Backbone:
């Protein structure tokens, strides 16, 4: 079994000629480039058991040779795709799973009854030009792929650069990618060819993805846990890029923003343990990303959740219909901003630099400094201290809840979100039953204050809509209806808030008593 570590960069077909002449590919090549045609057939069972297990099986024809490869998905994040590979030569394009020598893999394949149920599901036909480069002491195979994925009558063209680490440190992949992306507009390709092939086969559009559960080993340090959590956040963000760009499913932008908020909560939790330079840069860039995506989400909520119940109750109000039409126009403009963001060089370079920072580990405070010492402590000690601090802050602020303004209640909701994200990061370290009750109480606290957040955001949206509507009297009427509806909903939600707060107050902390509760340490 071998491990494959690669980074994919998509590019426009009309840039291929310029890329072939790129000075880095010429200056750092260890041998002459090679061009080959690769035709691969991917196999699975009719019910796609391999895909469901995170695997992809292909037989690739190179000249007269047939190479069978079974890939098993591994860690992801920062654009890196890591797989375990089982590769053998086979006599024909028909797979032969008996050639896989790994005992554990054989047990899985036999238990799932895979071998005798395999059928072709899609194929790839690619012209590949490869260079072997020396980059900072590492060896990287650069493959320029031009071709298509085909499943039945459906085809998906692809033009991408695949950077595969052959020898050396992972950050060398990012160094090369950053160098190349500094000269032409690449985009990170988050999906494997297999993932795109399966989408063609089942005829499905990409779906939004929620954050996957994070498992942190109990013997991990605060330093290693930061990398694990950050990679999970980046993987969630990248997995939602295609759906967000399409703009048809509101969950795409929503889940991308959730990933960013989780990442920002993590950076805040570690702010005293990070180098000032990286913390300042990362905080600013994450805030920029959030600001670019927020208008699309705000208009999604307004057009998809705020307006529909009002229109249902007041179907004859033409002013509301005109308000909705203007809101839909502004929503489309907001999604144009999202698409421009994803196509921008700043965006791609930011993600590549974030990936490099994680792999190189140079986000940390200087070694030997007092700030860096807590990074070497057991993760549970760090988590106990952080969770106790955030819980105490939330409780203290919430005690004033009866006298809080709308903006303060919004801040209370944000404190609840930080608490929830922190609990989610470290829940694998604690007994699940205890975590579940506390987690549910914090989630209910957030949801109950959701109408407050909607009102704060909607106030600004209504001002924009009022300026766009040509009939000022009609605009004022529509805006008044929406504000009145929201005021009643806020009042209704606040009536039940005392009970929700009581439930939260009675939820027992699931973390251990911290050895020291120092606000400067979190």
Residues:
């Amino acid at each position: 079994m071998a491990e494959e570590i690669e980074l994919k960069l998509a590019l426009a077909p009309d840039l291929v000629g310029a890329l072939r002449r790129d000075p880095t590919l010429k200056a750092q090549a260890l041998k002459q480039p090679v061009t080959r045609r690769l035709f691969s057939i991917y196999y699975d069972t009719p019910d796609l058991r391999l895909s469901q297990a995170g695997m992809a099986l292909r037989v690739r024809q190179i000249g007269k040779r047939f190479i069978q490869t079974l890939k098993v998905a591994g860690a992801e994040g920062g654009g890196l795709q890591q797989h375990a590979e089982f590769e053998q030569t086979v006599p024909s394009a028909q797979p032969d799973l008996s050639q896989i020598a790994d005992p554990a893999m054989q047990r899985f394949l036999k238990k799932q009854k895979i071998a005798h149920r395999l059928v072709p599901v899609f194929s790839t036909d690619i012209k590949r030009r490869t260079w072997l480069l020396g980059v900072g002491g590492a060896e990287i195979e650069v493959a320029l792929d031009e071709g298509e994925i085909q499943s039945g009558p459906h085809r998906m063209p692809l033009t991408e650069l695949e950077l595969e680490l052959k020898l050396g440190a992972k950050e060398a992949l990012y160094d090369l990618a950053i160098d190349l992306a500094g000269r032409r507009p690449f985009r990170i390709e988050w999906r494997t060819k297999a993932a795109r092939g399966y989408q063609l086969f089942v005829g499905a559009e990409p779906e939004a993805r929620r954050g996957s559960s994070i498992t942190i080993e109990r013997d991990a340090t605060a330093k290693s846990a930061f990398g694990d959590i950050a990679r999970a956040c980046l993987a969630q963000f990248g997995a939602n890029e295609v759906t967000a760009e399409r703009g048809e499913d509101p969950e795409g932008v929503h889940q991308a923003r959730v990933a960013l908020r989780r990442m920002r909560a993590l950076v805040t939790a570690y702010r005293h343990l990070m180098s000032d330079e990286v913390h300042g840069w990362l905080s600013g860039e994450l805030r920029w990303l959030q600001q670019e995506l927020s208008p699309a989400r705000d208009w999604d909520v307004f057009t998809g959740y705020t307006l529909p119940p009002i229109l249902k109750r007041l179907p004859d109000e033409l002013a509301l219909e005109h308000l909705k039409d203007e809101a839909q126009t502004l929503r489309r403009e907001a999604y144009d901003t999202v698409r421009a963001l994803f196509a921008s060089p700043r965006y791609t370079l930011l993600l590549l630099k974030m990936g490099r920072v994680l792999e190189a580990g140079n986000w940390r405070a200087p070694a030997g400094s007092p700030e860096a010492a807590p990074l070497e402590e057991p993760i549970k000690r760090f988590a106990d201290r952080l969770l106790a601090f955030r819980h105490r802050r939330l409780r203290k602020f919430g005690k004033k809840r009866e006298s809080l303004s709308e903006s303060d209640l919004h801040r209370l909701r944000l404190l609840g979100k930080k608490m929830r994200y922190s609990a989610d990061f470290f829940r694998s370290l604690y007994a699940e039953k205890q975590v579940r009750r506390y987690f549910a109480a914090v989630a209910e606290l957030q949801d109950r204050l959701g109408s407050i957040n909607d009102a704060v955001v909607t106030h600004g949206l209504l001002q924009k809509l009022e300026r766009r509507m040509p009939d000022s009297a009609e605009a004022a009427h529509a805006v008044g209806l929406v504000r009145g509806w929201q005021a009643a909903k806020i009042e209704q939600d606040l009536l039940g808030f005392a009970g929700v707060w009581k439930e939260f107050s009675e939820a027992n902390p699931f973390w251990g008593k911290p050895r020291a509760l120092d606000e400067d340490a979190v």
